[in-house]
Amino acid sequence: MKLHYREMVEGKPLIILHGLFGFSDNWQTHGKKLAEYFHVYLIDLRNHGHSDWSDEISYQLMADDVFEFCQEHQLEEVHLVGHSMGGKVAMQFAVDHEDVLEKLVIVDIGFKEYPMHHQHILAGINAIDLSSISSRREADQQMSKYIDNVGIKQFLLKNIYWKEKGKMAWRMNVAVLERDMKNILAPIPVDEISVPTLFIRGAMSNYILDEDIESIEERFIDVTIKTIENAGHWVHAEQADEFLDSLLSFCIR
Fold it and tell me: What DSSP letter does each residue of 129-153 carry, written as one string?
């Protein structure tokens, strides 16, 4: 049966889209703080988290999924935030449905095509034999042969869960993500976006380079670019306070 429910959240809608290999849980801490100002939606994109798996993945399909979500929940004047892959989904959404948006926040990603750079991460993921392990600790040991960064390992290992007693599984559709990595690295065909847009980049990240700024400013008519020092690609986690201050000062001004 369908149960009645109430929502007690005030403010305009704010949707957060996670990055590749992530899911909505990664943004829970920020989501709780942002819920003081907005009606926050943390979405799992297709083939990630608790959302359905599909044999297809592309930015057009993911943006269509987000638009369907907005229609289902009757959302207008949306503040859309996307990190990395989620940022490209947000840009594709803006290309298709700019009229739905009030503001756009892109976190450490450009609209350009990126070269393949996930080989060690995929090797670490594929090194884990889910049929032979009984804990994330054992998975960590198998993954460590390819990935030594503790933060990245913890981020990836959050995707492992108990599917049933004695059987662990991935929350992400590894086979499709690996097979269609070319689509995930593909450019977004941005012509001209007029919705107010904030790009936040980590000073230690190489995802948005200084030479990318001119092309971003050419295509995003009302754009602000914020560089956060002492932060890399996971700028929202590495410098959380400054990230939230930057996002809120842009979204509520």
Answer: -TTT-SSHHHHHHHHTTT---HHHH
* Tally of CB atoms within 10 A around 117: 11
Give Rg (Cα) of the chain.
18
3-state secondary structure (DSSP) of residue 160: strand
pLDDT in tens, 141-160: 999 999 999 999 999 999 99
- Which 3 state secondary structure label does DSSP give 41? strand
Neighbouring residues of 113: CB distance < 8 A, sequence distance ≥ 6: 185, 186, 187
Beta bridge partners of 104: 80, 197
Digit-coded pLDDT (tens) for 192-212: 999 999 999 999 999 999 999
Q: Which helix (H) or strand (E) holds 223?
A: strand 223-228
**DSSP string over 59-111:** HHHHHHHHHHHHHHTT--SEEEEEETHHHHHHHHHHHHHGGGEEEEEEES--S
Q: How many residues in the chain? A: 253
CA gap 159, 60 in Å, rounded? 24
Q: Among 83, 104, 84, 77, which residue's Cα sits nearest to residue 93?
A: 104
- CA dist 248 and 143 (Å) reads 37
DSSP 52: P
Pairwise CA distance, residues 56 & 170, whole Å: 18
Cα separation, 59 vs 103, in Å, equals: 19
12 Ramachandran zone, left/alpha/beta (phi>0; psi -120 to 50): beta
